[in-house]
Amino acid sequence: MTNPIQKTKSDKAGVEKKATSTDAHIDESIDKINDEKPSGLLAGIIERAIKTGLGRKKLNPSAVEVDVAKNMEKIHKSPTKLRLAFLGGGSFGTAMANLAARNGCDTTLWVRDKRTVKSMAKLQMNKKYLPGYKLDDRLKYSHDLEAAIKDKDIIFLAVPSLAFRETLKNIAPFLTGQSVVSLTKGMEKDTFALMSDIIKDELPEVNFGVMSGPNLAVEIMKNMPSATVIASESEPLRHAVQAALHSAFFRVFASDDIRGVELGGALKNIYAIAMGMAAAYDVGENTKAMLLTRSLAEMSRFGVEAGANPLTFLGLSGVGDLYATCSSELSRNYRIGNMLGRGMTIDAAVKKLGQTAEGVNTIQQVHEKATKEGIYMPITHALYAVIYEDKAALGVALNLMEAGFRSDVEFVMAHDHSNASLTAQMQAASDSGDDDDSSTNDNPDK
Ligand SMILES: NC(=O)C1=CN([C@@H]2O[C@H](COP(=O)(O)OP(=O)(O)OC[C@H]3O[C@@H](n4cnc5c(N)ncnc54)[C@H](OP(=O)(O)O)[C@@H]3O)[C@@H](O)[C@H]2O)C=CC1
Ligand SMILES: O=C(CO)COP(=O)(O)O
């Protein structure tokens, strides 16, 4: 059997020279990105961190990794270097694999397309998803799934949710005790399964975790300080992921609330679409703040119904990711919303984006689940009505504003019957007073 890792290594060495001198288009992109480099205080922090070895010095990586290795089941010969595989050659898989390689982990990025693997090894760059960003020269590339995961300690999955189950099925025959960590933020179409559910379904024996947080891939490639959360019931796995990815630019916090962390990452995509749409209507900061915090209320309400701890939504994977994705045009979900707000159809917006926007499917899943189970999710239902039932956005937004009286944080003061009866009185008064026809199906006191 060929060893694709060795092969790509020599490819890299052979082609590097060409890449630096001939690809004018990429040089242009790099110049453009360099122009956008952080400046001032941020630039100072980054420069200092680089000079001091990416901030891992104090952590004494080999000591941490020896400790991790001692604890991890079925861990093997060389405990001084964690061995990692990242599956998925999009922007996030690439950014995370690059972080790990830069930290000195033995890292292979698996990409399904052979030509893309060749191009990445040649240029040390992901031209399609992260053009202009040079990748660490220790990062290895492979399109051979078996070889990519062989002898690894941890396999990180960064494929879109629609490919998650299929990817697990494909690696199942080659597993020899590796742990699995999902980086995917979505729900399986039609089953409402989260990625951890799919892991338990397909690989019931495997030690697993999920990682999620405010991690816009391009900002990570620019060394902009960021943080994330690894959630797992396995402490050794949490430690291993922290040790593998931690640097002065990237902090990895820990949690054992897998459901909460995972739902934060999946649900915020719905609200990023809503916020992108609101931005297209030039709404004010008060409106954005209202939308953001009522989105958080929906997320935590839904999370609790699904078995999550509501406090998890106050962490990086909840409010942290919600804020990042709802504020930035780097978010693909936000961009989809913005295109919708400017009058495009959902199909045209998805086509124009040409990348993964998990929220498009998540809205449908959550709308259906919440309707079936009677979970109060007015923003999700409103968004569904605009996107999939062709309701007018303005009417839907006004309806949301006219929804009944509710408590602010329902885990502090429950939405009780006095609110419900007040709402009913108001509703009756407004029904008899006007004949507004811009309704949605929302019942605010369901
Ligand atoms: N980008 C980000 O900032 C972040 C993304 N995430 C999450 O990570 C996941 C992946 O997103 P991201 O990397 O951004 O996506 P991208 O759209 O950038 O890339 C998707 C990648 O998945 C590959 N792919 C698609 N279908 C399959 C399949 N059936 N088998 C194997 N590979 C496949 C694509 O290959 P091809 O090019 O050949 O189609 C491509 O390499 C999503 O769930 C996302 O929510 C999480 C945090 C941050
Ligand atoms: O999850 C992300 C940032 O944390 C990326 O968001 P998008 O998938 O909307 O680009």
From TrEMBL:
<keyword id="KW-0963">Cytoplasm</keyword>
<feature type="binding site">
    <location>
        <position position="213"/>
    </location>
    <ligand>
        <name>sn-glycerol 3-phosphate</name>
    </ligand>
</feature>
<dbReference type="InterPro" id="IPR008927">
    <property type="entry name" value="6-PGluconate_DH-like_C_sf"/>
</dbReference>
<comment type="pathway">
    <text>Membrane lipid metabolism; glycerophospholipid metabolism.</text>
</comment>
<feature type="binding site">
    <location>
        <position position="217"/>
    </location>
    <ligand>
        <name>NADPH</name>
    </ligand>
</feature>
<keyword id="KW-1208">Phospholipid metabolism</keyword>
<dbReference type="GO" id="GO:0046474">
    <property type="term" value="P:glycerophospholipid biosynthetic process"/>
</dbReference>
<keyword id="KW-0594">Phospholipid biosynthesis</keyword>
<feature type="binding site">
    <location>
        <position position="185"/>
    </location>
    <ligand>
        <name>NADPH</name>
    </ligand>
</feature>
<feature type="binding site">
    <location>
        <position position="112"/>
    </location>
    <ligand>
        <name>NADPH</name>
    </ligand>
</feature>
<feature type="region of interest" description="Disordered">
    <location>
        <begin position="424"/>
        <end position="446"/>
    </location>
</feature>
<keyword id="KW-0560">Oxidoreductase</keyword>
<feature type="binding site">
    <location>
        <position position="185"/>
    </location>
    <ligand>
        <name>sn-glycerol 3-phosphate</name>
    </ligand>
</feature>
<keyword id="KW-0521">NADP</keyword>
<keyword id="KW-0547">Nucleotide-binding</keyword>
<feature type="binding site">
    <location>
        <position position="332"/>
    </location>
    <ligand>
        <name>sn-glycerol 3-phosphate</name>
    </ligand>
</feature>
<feature type="binding site">
    <location>
        <position position="129"/>
    </location>
    <ligand>
        <name>NADPH</name>
    </ligand>
</feature>
<feature type="binding site">
    <location>
        <position position="332"/>
    </location>
    <ligand>
        <name>NADPH</name>
    </ligand>
</feature>
<feature type="binding site">
    <location>
        <position position="358"/>
    </location>
    <ligand>
        <name>NADPH</name>
    </ligand>
</feature>
<feature type="binding site">
    <location>
        <position position="333"/>
    </location>
    <ligand>
        <name>sn-glycerol 3-phosphate</name>
    </ligand>
</feature>
<feature type="domain" description="Glycerol-3-phosphate dehydrogenase NAD-dependent C-terminal">
    <location>
        <begin position="257"/>
        <end position="392"/>
    </location>
</feature>
<feature type="binding site">
    <location>
        <position position="91"/>
    </location>
    <ligand>
        <name>NADPH</name>
    </ligand>
</feature>
<feature type="domain" description="Glycerol-3-phosphate dehydrogenase NAD-dependent N-terminal">
    <location>
        <begin position="84"/>
        <end position="235"/>
    </location>
</feature>
<dbReference type="GO" id="GO:0005829">
    <property type="term" value="C:cytosol"/>
</dbReference>
<dbReference type="GO" id="GO:0005975">
    <property type="term" value="P:carbohydrate metabolic process"/>
</dbReference>
<protein>
    <recommendedName>
        <fullName>Glycerol-3-phosphate dehydrogenase [NAD(P)+]</fullName>
        <ecNumber>1.1.1.94</ecNumber>
    </recommendedName>
</protein>
<dbReference type="InterPro" id="IPR036291">
    <property type="entry name" value="NAD(P)-bd_dom_sf"/>
</dbReference>
<feature type="binding site">
    <location>
        <position position="92"/>
    </location>
    <ligand>
        <name>NADPH</name>
    </ligand>
</feature>
<keyword id="KW-0520">NAD</keyword>
<dbReference type="Pfam" id="PF07479">
    <property type="entry name" value="NAD_Gly3P_dh_C"/>
</dbReference>
<dbReference type="InterPro" id="IPR006109">
    <property type="entry name" value="G3P_DH_NAD-dep_C"/>
</dbReference>
<feature type="compositionally biased region" description="Basic and acidic residues">
    <location>
        <begin position="8"/>
        <end position="25"/>
    </location>
</feature>
<feature type="region of interest" description="Disordered">
    <location>
        <begin position="1"/>
        <end position="25"/>
    </location>
</feature>
<dbReference type="GO" id="GO:0141152">
    <property type="term" value="F:glycerol-3-phosphate dehydrogenase (NAD+) activity"/>
</dbReference>
<feature type="active site" description="Proton acceptor">
    <location>
        <position position="268"/>
    </location>
</feature>
<comment type="similarity">
    <text>Belongs to the NAD-dependent glycerol-3-phosphate dehydrogenase family.</text>
</comment>
<dbReference type="GO" id="GO:0141153">
    <property type="term" value="F:glycerol-3-phosphate dehydrogenase (NADP+) activity"/>
</dbReference>
<dbReference type="GO" id="GO:0046167">
    <property type="term" value="P:glycerol-3-phosphate biosynthetic process"/>
</dbReference>
<dbReference type="InterPro" id="IPR013328">
    <property type="entry name" value="6PGD_dom2"/>
</dbReference>
<feature type="binding site">
    <location>
        <position position="331"/>
    </location>
    <ligand>
        <name>sn-glycerol 3-phosphate</name>
    </ligand>
</feature>
<dbReference type="Pfam" id="PF01210">
    <property type="entry name" value="NAD_Gly3P_dh_N"/>
</dbReference>
<dbReference type="GO" id="GO:0051287">
    <property type="term" value="F:NAD binding"/>
</dbReference>
